Amino acid sequence: MAAAKRAALLLVLCLYTAFAAGPFVWAAMLSLRTTTEIHRNHFAPPNPAHWDKFAEAWFTSNYAVYFTNSTQVVVSAVVILTVVGSMAAHCLARYRFRLNRVIYFVLFSTIIFPPQITIISLFQILVQYGLYNSKLGLTLVYVAIQLPLTIYILESFFARIPSDLFDAARIDGYSDWEIFWRVSLPIALPAVATTVILNFILLWNEFLYAVVLITEEANRTLPLGIQRFIGDTQEDVGMIATGLMIAIIPVVVIYAFFSERLIQGMTAGAVK
Amino acid sequence: MPAGHQETSRAGALGKPWGTIGAFLLPSLLIYAAFTAYPAVRTIWNSFHRVLPRSDEAVGLANYAELMRDDIFWRSVRNTITWACMSPLIEVSVALLLALALYAKVPGARFFRIAWFTPVLMSYVVVGILWLWIYNFDWGPVNVALRALGLASWARAWLGDPKTALASLIFVTSWMWVGFNMVVLLAALHSLPREVLEAAELDNCGWGGKLVYVILPLLRATLLNLVVLSFIGKMKIFDLVWITTKGNPLWATETVSTYVYKRAFEWTTFDLGYPSTIAALWFVIVLAAVLTLTWLFRLREKLEY
Predict the structure, then answer these.
(1) Hey, which CATH number is domain A62-232, 1.10.3210.10, 3.30.1370.60, 1.10.3720.10, 3.40.50.620?
(2) A105 touches chain B (CB under 8 A)
(3) Domain tally for chain B?
(4) How far is the alpha carbon of A24 from chain B, nearest alpha carbon, in Å?
(5) Which of A53, B39, B149, B290 would bridge A118 by S-S if both were Cys, CB 3.0 to 4.6 A apart?
(6) Residues of B with CB below 8 A from A140's CB?
(7) Contact between B9 and A9 using a beta-carbon 8 Å cutoff
(8) For residue B158, which of B135, B179, B141, B175 has the smallest C-alpha distance?
(9) What does the alpha-carbon distance between residue B78 and residue B258 come to, in Å, rounded to a whole number?
């Protein structure tokens, strides 16, 4: 009886797994088949596998450009976020001063802002400063939208470092900057790594700000490129699937190596 | 003397070297001021103006008055609020069941956890296209399965039918977020004191009783957190709708976000004032809703303990 119950439970879990992961497996199969093959049977395995479709998407469908743009924008945003965010988090966790909690609250509360409250004006502002339709403009906006979460995660970690450590460092003659750079940051490396991975994935997937702030083909990021590609070639299911896989692969690779850290970062705001 | 010395060293570490504090905070505050605070204030300023590419004109509350009469806006509000109220219920309850299943020490729990979490890591663009195919009328797996089961009359263009479009999209976001909620709840379950659960077992409390009287009250804080988080996420929803239906058919899936975008950048009115008005009002509504939710939950907490 207990064994039967267990088997039923396992069956339910496996069915849910098929439901959760099935679409990706299907997309992976589609990405290796030509559209003609797909229209003969939408659910057949890729036999033979057309790996050359990836080269075709990369070189002839402009995915190389989209991929490079995404990488440039996201990597520079993540670097700036990490430096700027950890400086602020260290300061808010380490120094006691009036306004400390006010500043923390003001920065953090933007997490619940609906993006519309800034997006129309951001469009106007970036146009004014010649940053509209540029990767630099998008990068700066990306830094701004991820800053609250970054500071939130890092501040709670920095605050848990025992302050004796800082007193000791100060007695050893470390300056404020050295304490941050050579004591705080190395100890907080796991939390910093979490924010790096988390910000990378969230920004890699970002669509709304990109669609408002970028219109030029040469500056499109991957999500925009894919959207454009489906607009141009509604029916070419095979090639669209290949494009999707190109966008997914970096995320899958990161997840394969850092699944626990990524889960931790994603759920950081929800666990009490 | 030694005490005094310690005092100064503490003051040094935690005191008020304003120069240093300023230097550490300045970059963040500048970015915040330039790309969050200023745009937000400017949107509110916009909402009282007609904002054309080369000229602004103050119109007072005219935009707000027009908004009150805007049927599409109210339709989009209704859709978004439906979404934001349905999603937390579905996501959190299914996630709780799955978390309880994994909590019962099944083999491969680690694998299930990692697999179920995957959808939330994908962009809405990717997810949207995948589900456009899944809901495809001719060859989407949903209709194919229905026809195979002899339920051909149930097959339909799920996203093209005003009756099913919104529900179909809500289903997609649930598919995406259940794994996330499950992981959080599983972590919360694992952090529960074992003795309490065992005591419930000894008292011969059935599964249902254990769930209602022991587990749910202990998970309260986490559950409410997840509800608020899911609610906020759905109040913002844009990408998925934009990729799949663009608010069609007949505004059945129009959300506030997509409507703002359309009015600002798609309709050829060239006026940024009116969409700013929508954004400003929506901002107030979201803020009020989140504050009310947290306040309500706090209130109940006080009553119970």
Answers:
(1) 1.10.3720.10
(2) no
(3) 2
(4) 8
(5) B39
(6) 31, 34-35
(7) no
(8) B135
(9) 13
Which of chain A's residues have a Cβ under 8 Å away from the Cβ of B144? Answer: 42-43
Question: Cα–Cα–Cα angle for B23, A176, A199, nearest 5°?
Answer: 60
When the pLDDT of each residue in chain B is averaged and rounded to a whole number, the result is: 86
| φ, ψ of residue B161 in degrees (nearest 5) | -100, 120
Within this chain, do residues B136 and B248 fall inside the same structural domain, yes or no? yes
Domain extent for B17: 2-46
Do B83 and B37 fall within a single domain?
no
- Chain centroid to CA B54: how far? 36
| Other residues' Cβ atoms within 10 Å of the Cβ of residue B57 | 10
Is there a single domain that holds both residue B216 and residue B253? yes
Same domain, B114 and B79: yes
**Amino acid in the structure at residue B191:** S
Same domain? For B32 and B145 the reply is no
B126 to chain A: which residues are within 8 Å by CB?
27, 205, 226, 244, 247-248
- Report residue A258 as tokens: 């850092």
pLDDT recorded at residue B302: 61
Reported as a single tens digit per residue, the pLDDT across A131-147 is: 999 999 999 999 999 99
Q: Does the beta carbon of B282 lie under 8 angstroms from any beta carbon of chain A?
A: yes
CB contact under 8 A, B257 and A115: yes
Question: Radius of gyration of chain B from Cα atoms?
Answer: 25
Decide: A202 and B180 in contact? Cβ < 8 Å. no
Nearest to A30 by CA among A44, A40, A16: A44
Is the model's pLDDT at B1 over the cut of 60?
no
Q: CA-to-CA distance for B221 and B30, rounded, in angstroms? A: 35
Cis peptide before B53 (omega within 30 of 0): no
When CB atoms are compared, the residue of B13, B178, B239 closest to A166 is: B13
Q: What is the pLDDT of residues B120-176, one digit of tens each?
A: 889 999 999 999 999 988 888 999 999 999 888 888 889 989 999 999 999 999 999
Instruction: Please identify every stretch of chain A with a pLDDT value under 70, giving residue numbers as ranges.
Output: 1, 234, 269-272
B58 in a structural domain: no
Q: Which of A112, A117, A244 sits opposite B290 (nearest CB)?
A: A112
- CA-wise closest residue to A246 among A183, A188, A204, A186: A204
Chain position carrying tokens 């900057």: A177
Q: Considering CB atoms only, which of A84, A121, A144 is closest to B43?
A: A121
Task: Mark whether B105 and B229 lie in a shared domain.
Answer: yes
The answer to whether the Cα torsion of A169, A170, A174, A175 is positive or negative is: positive
